[in-house]
Amino acid sequence: MCRWNAYFGQPLAIEELLFRTKHSLIDQSLHARQGVEATNGDGFGLGWYPEHGDGVPRRYRSVNPMWNDPNLRDLAAEIRSPLFLAHIRATTGTPVQQTNSHPFKHGRWLFVHNGLIEDFHVIRRELLLAVEPSLFDGIHGSTDSETLFYLALTFGLEDDPLGGVERAVGFVEAVGRAHGVEHPIQMTLGLSDGERLYAVRYSSEGRSRTLYESVDGATVRALYPDNARLSHLSDEDRVVVSEPLNEELPGVWVEVPEATALIIQRGVDEQLPFTPAVPAAV
What we know:
By secondary structure, the protein is of the alpha+beta class. The protein has one domain: Glutamine Phosphoribosylpyrophosphate, subunit 1, domain 1, CATH 3.60.20. 24% of the residues lie in helices and 28% in strands. It has helices spanning 15-18, 25-31, 72-78, 120-129, 133-136, 144-154, 161-178, 217-223; strands at 2-13, 44-49, 58-62, 80-89, 104-106, 109-117, 185-192, 197-203, 212-214, 238-241, 253-255, 260-264, 270-273. The two termini are 30 Å apart. GO terms for molecular function: transferase activity.
């Protein structure tokens, strides 16, 4: 379906994750090991918060496969950011077009998704009609992922990020099941407002797509004291990935449990149960 990475921590050149890891997203775009498809070549996107800026995220999106974009390496080498998300797409049926490439953006928020809304073509109209009218013009593509993002915004994401997503997923499940869809949603997702990074692993059938979080920097340094590159990690640095960027570093990657949400932030991170809830009213 798709693969994505997210980074939170000290300002970092984006190329460190996109190009300078053994199993980076560049490699995963051709040779994914834990996804539904090995090839994820239906476009890609990069969203980041500038190291010195106004808090508004920037994006670069393309319909090219990530391995075949001639501008990406130069951009990734020049851009330093304390928080960024990158995504490679394998379409589940909607067109390959720039507006369908992740991350999706609204104000300070970025959103990436791996998975699908089952039988989206059957329930799409009902889902879209539930989007808050003042938000509707922000939908520029045709994907189930963007629809899910705007449902979460409708149900309060900006004030209560995880609650907004829980209500959006609860609504999708209710609508899907009303139309006879047994397992309406499958997802891992990442979202951020530039202050925190949120990640969720959930599916209606309890067999979610893979998602991993790196352990804290102090643990990584203790595990590999002779690795000069890892010695630069700070205690705040975290990476969330669809699949590990280097499988030759045992102990660095921890699988995110089923039905779980992460809040990665300055200080103590949080791991919480993710429980969809049908909104009281639409």
